[in-house]
């Protein structure tokens, strides 16, 4: 190992170790008041149905993407969802919350599944969550965004145990000038994947400069996910131990670069996915503005911004009048092209094979859906590739995205998404058999694609708390071809107080 590569790897270990310590320290910055008993309080119960259809064999992109896996993109859908949620109460002492969401869906891949099932405890500034609960990673817009580059709303959540701070906590001695928030989790990916029983490690640490009341606030964070352990049909059971967990948590044996030796490659024990996440919030009087930038990282060179243009840019302006005709405007730009390639040495773009991994051939996916931005598509959703191939088949992507949200009148809202993407396939993809050890280039010529969605929501029968939602979507271009789809649904909500 060269001195330069050793220095890079050592710096990475220190950085990830600091991240882990900081995330835990964020939970201990305040004192804990005494606990008290609580009743069940208010519980929100939900019931809804939906139906989705398309003119093509698959649904248009924005009818299936970022739905937490509830909609089957491969066919017509009809589904029923039932849920119950109890949020935290605003009271001192020990607090708890829980939630459950059950989905029944008739489609080509029909299912009855528990989408969410979790319990939460909060005590002072610290909180613990156990179970399956959806979460948004990063400082992105949560309703209009394409999705974070590491963890979007595209796939259903896996089972986790997490500890986190309750929002930002002031740094002692600095008052509101600086605050931090941390997150630390262990999870399970389950058996329904190429490497069965794989485990999930996650942590993040964010710093906020200046208080929320300030006209300008800045945020900076480092987010780290890792897939490890499990039983590979090609390599057998992978080590699961406290020592191995420490190696994964601190980033030991992480991939150095695409041209590392075979011996170094064999020592890589996890599929690491990370990002630097920066944002700036500005109070504009009648509106709020936010700009954000996510730098995507998969190996050591990514930490030093070799792939400086890879990642997500975003700019949002949001009126404080939530009933305005145009309430929110969002623009995003995604670029995932260089991927660690050293252009000065003749390497082609796509060298790292984002979201793919030589040991974890299922890639950065869960239940057949990409965990990061859905514009990087699994092999099963990539035109021209076999449905039974594991991993991600289209990961060299450039895209521009617009989102608009607002209200036609009180209670009737709309949301518009429009995405233009250039798709180039994947430089390294598993060959024809799911168990094949070799890789081959799956690059395609540039294929442009336009994807649109228009959705509306509003009251149906107000006295019974019934609401409707409908959406129309369109794909046109070379990558997905031409297809039009429609989704309709009805939802009921009720609030019950149980002491």
UniProtKB/TrEMBL annotation:
Entry-linked InterPro entries: Caps_assemb_Wzi, Wzi_sf
Top-level lineage group: Bacteria
Pfam families per the UniProt record, alphabetical: Caps_assemb_Wzi
Stated name of the protein: Capsule assembly protein Wzi
Organism of origin: Salinibacter ruber (strain DSM 13855 / M31)
């Amino acid at each position: 190992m060269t001195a330069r590569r050793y220095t890079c790897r050592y710096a990475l270990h220190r950085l990830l170790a600091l991240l882990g310590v900081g995330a835990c320290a964020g939970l201990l910055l305040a004192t804990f008041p005494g606990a008290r008993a609580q009743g069940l309080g208010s519980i929100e119960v939900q019931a809804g149905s939906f139906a989705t259809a398309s003119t093509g064999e698959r649904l248009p992109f924005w009818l299936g993407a970022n739905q937490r896996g509830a909609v089957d993109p491969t066919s017509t859908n009809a589904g029923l969802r039932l849920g119950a949620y109890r949020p935290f109460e605003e009271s001192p002492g020990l607090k708890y919350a829980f939630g459950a969401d059950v989905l029944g869906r008739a489609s080509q891949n029909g299912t009855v599944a528990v989408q969410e099932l979790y319990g939460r405890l909060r005590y002072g500034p610290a909180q613990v969550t156990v179970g399956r609960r959806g979460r948004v990673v990063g400082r992105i817009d949560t309703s209009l965004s394409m999705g974070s580059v590491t963890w979007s709303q595209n796939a259903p959540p896996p089972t986790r145990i997490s500890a986190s701070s309750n929002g930002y906590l002031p740094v002692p001695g600095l008052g509101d000038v600086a605050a931090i928030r941390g997150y630390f989790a262990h999870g399970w990916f389950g058996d329904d994947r190429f490497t069965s029983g794989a485990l999930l490690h996650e942590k993040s640490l964010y710093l906020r400069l200046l208080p929320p009341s300030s006209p300008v606030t800045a945020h900076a964070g480092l987010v780290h996910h890792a897939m490890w352990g499990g039983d590979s049909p090609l390599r057998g059971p992978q080590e699961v131990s406290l020592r191995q967990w420490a190696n994964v948590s601190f980033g030991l044996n992480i991939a150095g670069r695409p041209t590392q030796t075979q011996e170094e490659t064999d020592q890589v024990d996890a599929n690491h996915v990370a990002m630097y996440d920066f944002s700036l919030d500005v109070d504009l009087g009648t509106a709020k503005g936010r700009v954000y930038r996510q730098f995507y990282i998969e190996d050591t060179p990514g930490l030093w911004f070799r792939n400086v243009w890879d990642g997500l840019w975003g700019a949002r302006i949001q009126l404080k009048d939530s009933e305005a005709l145009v309430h929110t405007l969002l623009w995003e730009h995604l670029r995932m092209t260089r991927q660690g390639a050293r252009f000065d040495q003749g390497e082609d773009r796509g060298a790292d094979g984002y979201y793919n991994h030589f040991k974890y051939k299922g890639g950065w996916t869960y239940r057949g859906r990409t965990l990061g931005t859905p514009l990087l598509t699994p092999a099963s959703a990539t035109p021209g590739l076999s449905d039974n191939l594991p991993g991600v088949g289209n990961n060299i992507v450039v895209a521009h995205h617009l989102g608009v949200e607002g209200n036609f009148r009180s209670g009737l809202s709309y949301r518009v998404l429009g995405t233009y993407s250039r798709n180039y396939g994947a430089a390294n993809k598993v060959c024809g058999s799911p168990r094949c050890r070799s890789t081959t280039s799956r690059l395609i010529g540039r294929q442009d694609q336009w994807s649109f969605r228009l959705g509306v929501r509003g009251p149906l029968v107000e006295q019974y708390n019934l609401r409707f939602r409908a959406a129309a979507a369109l794909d046109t271009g070379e990558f997905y071809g031409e297809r039009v789809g429609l989704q309709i649904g009805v939802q009921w909500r009720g609030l019950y107080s149980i002491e």
